[in-house]
Design a protein that fits this description.
Structural class: mainly alpha
Strand content: under 5%
Oligomer: single chain
Helix content: 55-70%
């Protein structure tokens, strides 16, 4: 069997490979979750389901979240090292300044959305959920995600309206 050397792959090919592997894992885990033991009743209240593979889904989500955070920190550190003193400006683009601003802006957005998130109790499965840290953490992720999606859409619209070809 031929050994695959990922170091020589183009960035687009490698990210596409990772994307398809993750989609495959998510689809398989989703199907297993739905097809194996989904209708098991919850032992303390038979009105609710307690799917058999809930632990596997939660573990997979935690692994993806932790892996994403580790990869983000590694990429930030690597990018700042690569864009050190000699690569501050590349092709008249301030690459280091952009990297630092994106990293600090993301961190600031996470801190702000955590601080401004609601701590009002939620009713979950008929009981009040009052853990303020996790209420703020979930609000932080939802708020940051929404703000980043809006910023991405605004950047695409801005870029699309500013890109006008000159006809010769």
């Amino acid at each position: 069997m031929k050994k695959i050397d990922f170091r020589h792959y183009a960035t687009e090919r490698l990210s596409g490979f990772v994307f398809y592997v993750l989609i495959g894992l998510i689809v398989v885990l989703g199907l297993l979750f739905r097809l194996i033991g989904y209708d098991m009743p919850y032992e303390y209240n038979f009105d609710y389901n307690a799917p058999l593979l809930t632990g596997a889904v939660v573990t997979f989500m935690l692994l993806l979240t932790g892996g994403t955070l580790v990869l983000m920190v590694w990429t930030m550190i690597r990018g700042m090292r690569i864009n050190g003193d000699e690569n501050r400006v590349v092709n008249n683009i301030p690459a280091r300044r952009i990297s630092v601003c994106v990293a600090l802006g993301t961190l600031l957005l996470l801190v702000l959305t955590f601080a401004l998130s609601s701590t009002d109790a939620l009713k979950v499965n008929g009981a009040a959920y009052t853990d303020t840290f996790w209420l703020r953490a979930s609000g932080m992720f939802v708020g940051t995600s929404l703000l980043m999606v809006v910023a991405a859409i605004a950047a695409v619209v801005f870029g699309a309206t500013r890109y006008i070809r000159k006809s010769h």
